[in-house]
Write a structure and sequence with these properties.
By secondary structure, this protein is mainly beta. It folds into 4 domains: 34-98 and 389-394, no CATH class; 101-134 and 240-274; 137-235, no CATH class; 277-385, no CATH class. The chain contains no helices and 29 strands. The protein has a 4-stranded antiparallel sheet, with no helix packed on it. It has a 4-stranded antiparallel sheet with strand order 2-7-4-5, with no helix packed on it. The protein is globular.
Length: 396
């Protein structure tokens, strides 16, 4: 059997042309393992295996076969160093989504909507496209968990894998939907409750059952477990239950300028775009006195910047599972006699956010720790986008 041999003096393969010009209709490029991506740019990872560094702001995306859209995880804005990626040349890509919408939070679901006539209009540029999903959210009545279907003998909570709604090609609504997720709790070996983490959208029918599978680590597997079942109801008729961003479009200079409007035969639905953004300037306006020694360190960091939680209680955004903001790190200069004047901070890391964060001023607590900030200064954050550099190194 052939194998790859490595050792001193045997380096990784030299960078290759990502899309060799010898291929028909392929653009010409030079052999390199570094590539700059401006906001809104993306590149499919060529077929093969790669070591990839996503820089500070780039994300890895895959084309989700369930929803039909490009998807990145909640921690997509956090780069973990070098990643090993195997690509088929089409379904995995690197993207710079700063300044672009990633999805939308449903503020009000409205009433009376019909899938075929419901549309979403974008105001504020960017050219993003959206698909609404009407109805098909899941529910259940905990009273249905009774002795007959609650199972028995579970040592740990069982796993409930809810099938996704039919894909667009097989779904009567023609657009597909969002998969639902949830988990069980047990009492005395039987299922006592089920909780949704996502009620989903686009499901069909009226009810269906799912078996509560024994966890592979359950210590009672050898002694026997009676599997329980969960009965789900399909509801949300006429209500906007999901929104798919089918194309993020071009970056928007000011993420606050974009708005989405729901139109159709229904009424009252309201949605808010979830934007990928970073801090591009941080200005301290006005002046304050710091009761700290000259030479103290002043840091502006952030809290928040999470997606709008929306009105659907059992949803990733509402449960703070839909995204993980990365706080910013911005330096301010402390002048003589402990003063801090109006200034523009130095951004070391603009952070990665899904909404506008709140700035927080932190002064070195090891210097005159009893001091305080006196004055009326405010910190103004300007949100936007940045270019970044990706490294795509062929892996053996």
């Amino acid at each position: 059997m052939s194998q790859i041999i490595a050792g001193p003096g045997l380096s990784l393969p030299y960078p290759q042309s990502l899309y060799p010009s010898e291929l028909q209709n392929a653009p010409y490029d030079s052999a390199s393992n570094r590539l700059a991506l401006a906001a809104g740019d993306e590149i499919a990872i060529p077929s093969g295996t790669w070591y990839i560094s996503r820089g500070n702001y780039l994300t890895l995306e895959f084309q989700d076969p369930v929803t039909g859209i490009w998807s990145a995880g909640p921690t997509a804005g956090w780069s973990g160093g070098i990643e090993y990626v195997k690509s088929d040349g089409f379904n995995v890509r690197i993207a710079n989504r700063l300044g672009c919408p990633l999805g939308a939070a449903i503020l009000v679901g409205g009433t009376g909507y019909v899938q075929g006539s419901t549309t979403i209009t974008v105001t504020g540029g960017g050219g993003s496209t959206w698909t609404p999903i009407v109805g098909g959210s899941l529910g259940m009545n905990t009273a249905t968990i009774v002795t007959a279907n609650a199972g028995a003998g579970y040592g740990v909570a069982p796993i409930v894998i809810i099938p996704p709604p039919p894909a667009a090609a097989n779904n009567p609504n023609g657009v597909g939907g969002n998969p639902a997720t949830g988990y069980c709790t047990i009492s005395s070996g039987t299922i006592s409750a089920f909780s949704f983490t996502n009620v989903g959208a686009g499901y069909t029918g009226t009810t269906f059952n799912v078996t509560a599978l024994a966890n592979p680590t359950d210590p009672n597997l050898a002694t026997g477990i009676t599997l329980g079942t969960i009965t789900f109801t399909v509801g949300g008729s006429g209500v906007l239950t999901g929104v798919l961003c089918t194309n993020s479009g071009a970056p928007i200079s000011n993420p606050a300028n974009i708005s989405l409007t729901v139109s159709g035969v229904g009424s009252s639905a309201s949605i808010n775009p979830i934007m990928a953004q970073t801090v591009i300037t941080a200005s301290l306006v006005g002046g304050s006195t710091l009761a700290y020694d000259t030479g103290s360190l002043a840091l502006v960091t952030t809290v928040g910047g999470y997606p709008n939680q929306g009105s659907i209680a059992a949803s990733p955004d509402n449960l703070l599972l839909g995204g993980r903001p990365r706080p910013a790190q911005i330096a301010l200069t402390v002048g003589g006699v402990g003063t801090i004047a109006a200034q523009v901070g130095t951004i070391y890391d603009g952070g990665y956010f899904y909404g506008t964060p709140a700035p927080v001023l932190v002064v070195d607590p090891l210097v005159a720790a009893t001091g305080s900030v006196v004055g009326s200064s405010t910190i103004v954050l300007t949100m936007g986008s940045k270019a970044d550099i990706a490294i795509l190194q062929p892996a053996p």
